[in-house]
TrEMBL record:
InterPro entries: CheC-like_sf (IPR028976), CheX-like_dom (IPR028051). It comes from the Bacteria. GO terms for biological process: chemotaxis. This is Chemotaxis protein CheX. Pfam families: CheX (PF13690). The lineage of its organism: Bacteria, Pseudomonadati, Acidobacteriota, Terriglobia, Bryobacterales. SUPFAM superfamilies: CheC-like. Residues 55-128 form the Chemotaxis phosphatase CheX-like domain. The keyword Oxidoreductase does not apply. It comes from Paludibaculum fermentans. Keywords: Chemotaxis.
Length: 157
C-alpha cells in the first residue's frame, strides 16, 4: 500500500490566489483605507528592499505566509492604521504594524481556504530573507510601493 501524499498548496493554484487576493483587498481597504493602484500580479520573488515578515500556522493546515512590504508603504500603512502622520511613526510602530498586517492577512486567507478548519497562527516575525521554497508571490501594487505575499501549506510543512 502506498502512503497517501498530500500536495503542497501555494499561489500557483487559482483557489489559493483568489483567497489571498480577496483577503488582501478586504484587509487593506477596511483596516488601512488602501486600494490597489493596478491589477494584482503573480511574481517569482519579492522585491529585495522590503520589510519581510513570516506568519507560520498549524492545525487543519500547516504552513506559512510571508509578506514583503516596501519601506515607504510600511510607513504609510502604519500611519493610517495608528491615525498618525507618516513623520510621527516610529520604527517599532512600523514593524509592529507590518506584523499585525501579516496576522490579519494570514487569518483572512486561511478562513477562505479552510472555512471549517482549526488553526493557530504563530506570532508573526521579521525575517532576513524569504524562504527559498516559498513558491510564487502575489504582488499588490499600491501608490508608491507594493505588498508581496506568499502562502504555502500542506503536509510536512
Amino acid at each position: 500500500m502506498t502512503p497517501k501524499h498530500e500536495e503542497i498548496h501555494d499561489l500557483s493554484l487559482p483557489q489559493v490566489r483568489q483567497a489571498c487576493r480577496a483577503a488582501l483587498l478586504e484587509v487593506l481597504e477596511t483596516m488601512f483605507f488602501e486600494l490597489p493602484a493596478a491589477d494584482l500580479e503573480v511574481v517569482d520573488a519579492p522585491e529585495v528592499s522590503s520589510c519581510l515578515i513570516r506568519a507560520g500556522f498549524h492545525g487543519s493546515a500547516n504552513g506559512a505566509m510571508q509578506l514583503a512590504i516596501s519601506c515607504r508603504i510600511c510607513c504609510r500603512l502604519a500611519a493610517s492604521f495608528l491615525g498618525k502622520e507618516t513623520d510621527e511613526v516610529s520604527l517599532p510602530e512600523k514593524c509592529s504594524t507590518a506584523r499585525e498586517l501579516a496576522n490579519m492577512l494570514c487569518g483572512a486567507s486561511l478562513s477562505r481556504l479552510k472555512p471549517h478548519g482549526r488553526m493557530t497562527i504563530e506570532t508573526p516575525q521579521s525575517i532576513e530573507a524569504p524562504a527559498a521554497d516559498s513558491g510564487p508571490w502575489l504582488r499588490y501594487p499600491l501608490e508608491g510601493g507594493f505588498i508581496d505575499v506568499a502562502l504555502r501549506y500542506g503536509e510536512g510543512l
